[in-house]
Design a protein that fits this description.
Layout (H helix, E strand, L loop, with lengths): L1 E5 L3 H13 L4 E4 L2 H7 L6 E6 L8 H9 L9 E5 L4 H9 L4 E4 L4 H12 L9 H8 L3 H13 L2
Parallel strand pairs: 1-2, 1-3, 3-4, 4-5
């Protein structure tokens, strides 16, 4: 089980990572949205993303919109942790189906409670293809057929 933190400010990233690790969660940090998008296919057992809004090159809302456009991350829980509490940003986050919108400085207990409530009993959203094939006892073609069938349900 893994939580990806997308935060360009090193201090904020360390604070979030520390809170989560002390809460018993496995974390990794991406320093910007583009790096996070590049790393996502390599992550096993991704459960949640926590992202800032103000980042260079691609802001957090654009990053989330990109995630929502990919079948594997369309329903992945996302928490925004930002200093920007404007109504426009909050409404856009709601439109993108973000699970929570927390304003910095984030309260440790509030963050951990929200993460726990989102992850309680949840199976990993992204898992390694070979792990899934092994767990299901299927080969490559059967796996591809299942993915196609599931995608058609949407």
């Amino acid at each position: 089980m893994s939580i990806r933190i997308v935060e360009d400010n090193l201090v904020n990233a360390i604070v979030l990572e520390s809170f989560l690790q002390k809460g018993g969660y496995q974390t990794a940090v991406a320093r910007n949205a583009q790096d996070a998008l590049t790393q996502l296919p390599k992550i096993q057992d991704l459960q949640l993303i926590i992202t800032d809004l103000s980042m260079p090159d691609m802001d957090g809302l654009e990053f989330i919109a990109n995630l929502r456009g990919v079948p594997a991350t369309k329903y992945l829980p996302i928490i925004i942790v930002t200093a920007h509490s404007g109504v426009g940003n909050v409404n856009r986050a709601k439109d993108l189906e973000c699970a929570a919108y927390l304003v910095k400085p984030v309260d440790k207990n509030q963050l951990l409670n929200r993460v726990e409530s989102l992850l309680k009993g949840q199976l990993p959203v992204l898992q390694d293809k070979h792990r899934v094939m092994n767990n299901l006892g299927v080969g490559t073609q059967e796996y591809d057929d299942l993915i196609t069938a599931f995608a058609a349900l949407r």
